[in-house]
């Protein structure tokens, strides 16, 4: 029986028309090209990450789920029915604007079989001066108004723009129209889904030179015109040794923690814990081992790990299932 330990993965990098090279700042070795996404912890048909440390090195997260999921993911994190790991953890480098998009809820009938809806949250790791994002519709925009704007190419006039800086966080429930824009690097915690409905793509060519497909009907169907429950906050108030809650959804709870010295913590029995290191470095210790950690790394702590210690000077996100 393998003793539980924190798992570190080889990321799956994705080239995107809007990507860049900014993820190199985390010491990650990127393949060539415009790298937009690093899938850091993934168990999805479009990308599965492989463990790089400890006894289970070389195995995929999907294999770990099959072999150890019940004990290691906890009762909330493991399901016989939809076996997939419930969350997908990414780092995004938005060197250019992402398409204006919206994601469906779990019960949308247009979803491909086996696919989930997509509620997500962002924590801004880095932002250029004057960086902004698109976050929600302007007040009073109805399905008809959005439809007409899509047909006339005036969608941007119906959307809210919000300035962003490092440390800001955004909760984006399914149904929220949104777009990350040029000059931001974010950590994304989301439902394990890869379903995006594209509303507008700035009339630009995709990686293959042709415009990327838009999804007019699906977008209109899944948009939450009455509001989706989206929230945003600045997280400057986080103090060492206390968790500041950033998002609480039916799918995940995400908290920010400032590590200043040794902080003793514990996993909960019914859910795994994911630690995303936003900045700084330190040592992660547990019963039976330790590993150095540094910004940009994402660890999956098994539910049955028990007590562990973060020791260093760093900012981290902690995610687990509600
Ligand atoms: Zn999205």
Automatic annotation (TrEMBL):
SUPFAM superfamilies: RmlC-like cupins (SSF51182). Residues 9-107 form the Phosphomannose isomerase type I catalytic domain. It is an enzyme of class 5 (isomerase). Its EC number is 5.3.1.8. Its cofactor is Zn(2+). It catalyses: D-mannose 6-phosphate = D-fructose 6-phosphate. The keyword Nucleus does not apply. Residues 247-320 form the Mannose-6-phosphate isomerase cupin domain. GO terms for molecular function: mannose-6-phosphate isomerase activity. InterPro entries: Carb_Metab_Reg_Kinase/Isom, Man6P_isomerase_Firm_short, MPI_cupin_dom, PMI_typeI_cat, RmlC-like_jellyroll, RmlC_Cupin_sf. Keywords: Isomerase, Metal-binding, Zinc. This is Mannose-6-phosphate isomerase.
């Amino acid at each position: 029986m393998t003793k539980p330990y924190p798992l570190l993965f080889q990321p799956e990098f994705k080239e995107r028309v809007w990507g860049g090279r900014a993820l190199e700042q985390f010491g990650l070795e990127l393949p060539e090209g415009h790298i937009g996404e690093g899938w850091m912890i993934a168990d999805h048909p479009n990308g599965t990450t492989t463990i790089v440390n400890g006894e289970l090195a070389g195995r995929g997260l999907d294999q770990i789920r099959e072999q150890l999921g019940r004990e290691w993911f906890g009762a909330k994190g493991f399901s016989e029915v939809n076996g997939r790991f419930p969350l997908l953890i990414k780092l995004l480098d938005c060197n250019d604007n992402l398409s204006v998009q919206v994601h469906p809820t779990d019960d949308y009938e247009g979803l491909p079989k086996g696919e989930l809806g997509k509620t997500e949250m962002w924590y801004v790791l880095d932002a250029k001066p004057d960086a902004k994002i698109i976050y929600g519709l302007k007040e009073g925009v109805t399905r008809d108004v959005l439809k007409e704007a899509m047909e006339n190419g005036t969608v941007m006039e119906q959307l809210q723009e919000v300035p962003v800086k490092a440390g800001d966080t955004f909760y984006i429930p399914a149904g929220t129209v949104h777009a990350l824009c040029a000059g931001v690097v974010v950590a994304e915690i989301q439902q394990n889904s890869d379903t995006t409905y594209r509303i507008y793509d700035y009339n630009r060519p995709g990686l293959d030179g042709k415009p990327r497909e838009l999804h007019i009907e699906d977008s209109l169907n899944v948009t939450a015109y009455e509001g989706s429950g989206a929230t945003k906050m600045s997280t400057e108030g986080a103090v060492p040794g206390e968790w500041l809650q950033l998002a609480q959804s039916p799918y995940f709870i995400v908290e920010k923690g400032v590590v200043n010295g040794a902080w003793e913590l514990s996993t909960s029995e019914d859910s795994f814990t994911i630690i995303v290191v936003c900045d700084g470095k330190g040592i992660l210790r547990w019963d039976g081992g330790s590993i150095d950690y540094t910004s940009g790394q994402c660890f999956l702590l098994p539910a049955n790990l028990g007590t562990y210690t973060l020791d260093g000077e760093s900012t981290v996100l902690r995610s687990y299932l509600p």
